[in-house]
């Protein structure tokens, strides 16, 4: 459902956001975050139902990553409240983090470790028994087609393989909410299909998946719900059908965020005439030597 955007503002000292919904997987009320003179997130409110496959979409700089970092306890908001399965993130951040699987970015992992070592390390860091971690690591390596690369350093992995091991580290502790930033970027079609199957099965058991993505076709095909974020606010949120409003999600997205303009004609790109070279200009004559012949 479309929500009106308002101009960026600063929350007053006595600002009190509305109450969160404790029945939701994620309930956000009035989030604000400011960096110097830029307001990255501006009073954002959103509810993400339990068991949903939720897409967060928006143009670059819209506030998606900042929202995710505040939602998962990685960044403290200037104002506002986030509840994860009814728990206030900043009142019990450690308990909340146990409920969340946040997919790290490739530059946030220890790439000198092997894939197997990275999974075992991720599980034990969360206090899991070693035997259980090793068993789950074996299952995840098989599920993500990484068995042959299990004992190779992650630094030797391709971009797609690195994405898969990052996702596996987010799942090792069996979280109830998975938060994934562009999980299918640089992943080959076969691996992508396997990942989608794993995530779909996870949602079918009551888990919640939150994906930040720029690929509208993937969001429309996979997600049950979507929120369009623009200028640090929710421009529209609801089921994919509600937000699309009978149109292709790509077109609806462009309507909501704006910014589309007529195609600029680059004549030079299509074999046209350079502005510095008039159409009727004659080619330059080769210089002459003193004897009257052309230089080679």
Task: Write structural notes for this entry.
Helix 3 runs parallel beside helix 5. The longest helix has 16 residues, at 189-204. It is built from nine helices and ten strands. It has one domain: Rossmann fold, CATH 3.40.50. Helices cover 30% and strands 20% of the residues. With 296 residues, the protein is of the alpha/beta class. The protein has helices spanning 64-71, 93-99, 115-125, 130-143, 159-171, 189-204, 216-222, 240-244, 249-257, and strands at 26-35, 38-48, 53-57, 79-84, 87-88, 100-102, 177-181, 208-212, 225-230, 233-239. The termini are far apart. The chain has a six-stranded mixed β-sheet with strand order 6-7-8-3-9-10, sandwiched between helices. A four-stranded antiparallel β-sheet has the order 2-1-4-5, covered by helices on one side. The mean pLDDT is 87.
Radius of gyration over C-alpha positions, nearest whole angstrom: 25 Å
CATH superfamily (homologous) name: P-loop containing nucleotide triphosphate hydrolases
Low-confidence runs of at least 5 consecutive residues: none
The average pLDDT is 87
Helix-strand category? alpha/beta
Q: Count the DSSP helices.
A: 9
Question: What's the number of domains?
Answer: 1
Report the strand count.
10
Shape: globular
Beta-strand content: 15-25%
The CATH architecture classification is 3-Layer(aba) Sandwich
Helix content: 25-40%
Distance between the termini: 72 Å
Strand order of the largest sheet: 6-7-8-3-9-10
Largest sheet: 6 strands, mixed
What's the helix-strand series?
Answer: EEEHEEHEHHHEHEHEEHH
- Using the coordinates above, name the CATH class: Alpha Beta
| CATH fold-level assignment | Rossmann fold
Main location: membrane
Membrane topology: Peripheral membrane protein
Pfam families: ABC_tran
Organism: Bifidobacterium canis
């Amino acid at each position: 459902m479309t929500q009106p955007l308002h101009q960026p503002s600063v929350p007053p000292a006595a600002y009190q956001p509305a109450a969160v919904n404790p029945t939701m997987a994620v309930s956000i009320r009035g989030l604000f975050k400011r960096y110097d003179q830029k307001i990255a997130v501006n009073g954002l409110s959103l509810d993400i139902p339990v068991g949903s496959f939720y897409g967060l979409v928006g143009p670059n700089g819209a506030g998606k990553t900042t929202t995710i970092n505040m939602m998962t306890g990685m960044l403290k908001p200037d104002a506002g409240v986030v509840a994860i399965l009814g728990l206030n993130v900043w009142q019990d951040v450690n308990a909340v983090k146990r409920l969340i699987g946040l997919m790290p970015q490739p530059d946030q992992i220890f790439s000198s470790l092997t894939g197997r070592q990275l999974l075992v390390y991720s599980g034990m860091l969360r206090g899991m028994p070693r035997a259980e971690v090793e068993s789950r690591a074996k299952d995840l390596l098989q599920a993500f087609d990484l068995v042959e690369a299990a004992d190779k350093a992650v630094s030797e992995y391709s971009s797609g393989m690195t994405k898969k091991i990052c996702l596996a580290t987010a799942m090792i502790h069996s979280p109830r909410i998975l938060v994934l930033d562009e999980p299918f970027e640089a992943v080959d079609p076969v691996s992508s299909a396997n990942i989608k199957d794993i995530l779909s099965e996870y949602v079918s058991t009551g888990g919640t998946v939150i994906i930040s993505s720029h690929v509208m076709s993937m969001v429309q095909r996979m997600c049950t719900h979507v929120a369009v974020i623009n200028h640090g606010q929710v421009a529209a949120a609801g089921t994919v059908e509600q937000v699309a409003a009978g149109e292709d999600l790509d077109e609806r997205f462009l309507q909501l965020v704006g910014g589309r303009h007529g195609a600029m004609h680059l004549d030079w790109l299509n074999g046209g005439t350079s502005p510095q070279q008039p159409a009727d200009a004659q080619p330059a004559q080769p210089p002459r030597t003193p004897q009257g012949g052309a230089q080679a």
